[in-house]
Design goal:
Radius of gyration: 39 Å
Order of helices and strands: HHHHHHHHHHHHHHEEH
Structural class: mainly alpha
Number of helices: 15
Helix content: 40-55%
Keywords: DNA damage, DNA repair
Protein name: HhH-GPD domain-containing protein
Mean pLDDT: 79
CATH architecture: Orthogonal Bundle
Number of domains: 1
Largest sheet: 2 strands, antiparallel
CATH topology: Endonuclease III, domain 1
InterPro entries: Alkylbase_DNA_Glycosylase/TA, DNA_glycosylase, HhH-GPD_domain
CATH class: Mainly Alpha
Region (Disordered): 1-32
Domain HhH-GPD: 131-286
Length: 323
């Protein structure tokens, strides 16, 4: 007689959910099913929950206080470099350029050092730059002379005076309608306080380029010339100037004229005296009979776009007089 199967007692757990069917083990069974045992969920007592919430709130408040005590982020500006008109600064520039670039040193030895000693008030210099655009130096000088007389002298070339000049008055002295609008836009930005002579002198190079490009008719080339010849900033590289690019091509024996995008890398060794090195590039191009005085100017035809056009001047000194 075969062995009878005895029912096995089922383990029970207080509060456990009932199983679907009891497990029966027979003589011929080879596997068994374990009963389902639910996971226990730990419940926090009221005192423990309160303590946890208090600790979380305390940590949050501490972090908030820590952040509140931190000083606000500082907005840094580039330091304004020493002017090239400062005594001894040209000598320092030449020493640096000779040591950092022997090829440039040979060019330096062939020419007299530059002189940066003229200074016009920024508003006058910018107005002058606008008047000379796209004109030969002689023609620009003629119109500028009449413009100064119309204002009552160079000391009277002021924002309010220029704003009062009508387009017909400016047209009579040879100023085009477009340039008249440029002069009025410059004067308006002074009158509204967007620009001022003092703020321009105190701006770093990057800010100057940004703010002055907001003026109609003043593009990057004009700003670069203004910074070099009027403010005497030492480290300005006019990457779009044909004369400087031609000088770089001659200096390094390049097959092609370097693109503006290549100029920064080619001239990196000249920092922080790229203005002085650029002056020697004009001299080099001029001495080789290259059209160094053909310099493209970025002229704003609208607030949204800029065009580069060619300006012919009679000499490198003519470019310097734009400042």
């Amino acid at each position: 007689m075969g062995e009878q199967t005895q029912p096995q007692p089922q383990p029970t757990t207080a509060g456990a959910a009932p199983t679907a069917e009891p497990t029966v083990i027979t003589a011929n069974s080879t596997a068994s099913k374990l009963p389902f045992r639910p996971r226990k969920i730990r419940k926090l007592s009221p005192s423990t929950a309160t303590a946890t919430a208090t600790a979380t709130a305390t940590a949050t408040n501490t972090n908030a206080l820590t952040l509140a005590k931190q000083p606000p982020p500082r907005i840094t500006h580039q330091p304004i470099p020493i002017s090239l008109s400062t005594e001894g600064e040209i000598e320092a520039a030449l020493r640096h350029l000779r040591s950092s670039d022997p090829l440039l040193g040979r060019v330096i030895d062939l020419h007299q050092p530059p002189v940066f000693d003229s200074f016009n008030p920024p508003f006058l210099a910018l107005a002058k730059s606008i008047l000379y655009q796209q004109l030969a130096f002689k023609a620009g000088t003629s119109i500028y002379t009449r413009f100064v007389a119309l204002c009552g002298g160079e000391a009277s070339v002021l924002p309010d005076v220029v704003r009062a000049l009508t387009p017909p008055q400016l047209r009579q002295i040879g100023v085009s309608a477009r340039k008249a609008s440029y002069l009025h836009d410059l004067a308006s930005k002074y009158s509204t306080g967007i620009l001022s002579d003092d703020s321009i002198v105190d701006m770093d190079d990057r800010s100057l380029l940004t703010m002055l490009n907001m003026v109609k008719g003043i593009g990057s080339w004009s700003v670069h010339m203004f910074m070099i010849f009027s403010l005497h900033r030492p480290d300005v590289l006019p990457v779009g100037d044909l004369g400087v690019r031609k000088g770089v091509q001659l200096l390094y024996g390049l097959e092609e004229l370097p693109r503006p995008s290549q100029m920064e890398q080619l001239c990196e060794k000249w920092r922080p005296y790229r203005s002085v090195a650029s002056w020697y590039m004009w001299r080099l191009a001029e001495s080789k009979g290259a059209p160094a005085v053909a310099a493209p100017i970025a002229v704003d035809t609208s607030h949204q776009s800029q065009q580069q056009q060619t300006q012919l001047v009679d000499s490198i000194n003519g470019i310097a007089n734009l400042g």
